[in-house]
Write a structure and sequence with these properties.
13 helices, alpha/beta, Integrase_H2C2, Endonuclease III, domain 1, two-stranded parallel ribbon
Length: about 270
Amino acid sequence: MRYALIKFRVYLLGEQTFAVYTDHASLRTAMKSPHLSQRMARRLSFFAEYNFVVHYKPGKNNILADALSRRPDYDPRTVLVRQLIDDEDEDDDHCAVCIASGINLTNVSPEMDLRDEIVAAYADDAVYAGIVAYLRAPSDETLGALSRNTRNQIDRYHLDGDLLCYNIDKFDAPRVVVPNDDDLRARIIHEFHDSPMDTHLGRKKTFAAVSRDFFWPHMYKWVRKWVRTCETCQRVKPSKSSQAPLRPLPIATEAWRSVSMDFIFGLLPDAEG
């Protein structure tokens, strides 16, 4: 919005009233808010030069403006299309946790035994088993066995040999679909996060690495919980939270008002045990 006002400044200054359509709903009330940050105050000072009215238009209806605002050099084939996952959703109890072990794996690819395990696990996943059955033998019967949501997204799936692959559109790089198998998903995250080559990356970088080659629903929540419960990350990485400073206890006003205890461990036993 600010860029457009600067770009067309010579045409808009002095106009009686013009309308601005935006999908930024909070702009309607931002100009009337009594609590402003310094940055917002500077922006409002700039907006005050123009006489306009803000109209809210939902993003799904603001198609023309979205098309005009896209970068001209944007190539979706070079951009990772990430899953739309709510980062604030804390319901990740069903996700695997990171457990320290003696496994030392340095490379991962959908080949050899991992590939065979993924293919074999499709049969135990009702959703992906139905998708594989339809892609191998498309018919009204196999299509009807799928849920409505799956039917709406069936064009995003294809078979690469025996592997089921998923991609948003033709420009998106295909990713191997991992069925609903906790051991398989935990193994893949372990190899990307815990291997010496990846040096225990954070949740965003680990998710970016895993999602380049693999796909399953709620992958981000899996990665987030794995990183949170990684013992090495908890020991090595510094905590961002500030600790309260040390301060003396208040002076007690009477006996037994304050009681303190010291715990000492590791002392050698005396003669009495």
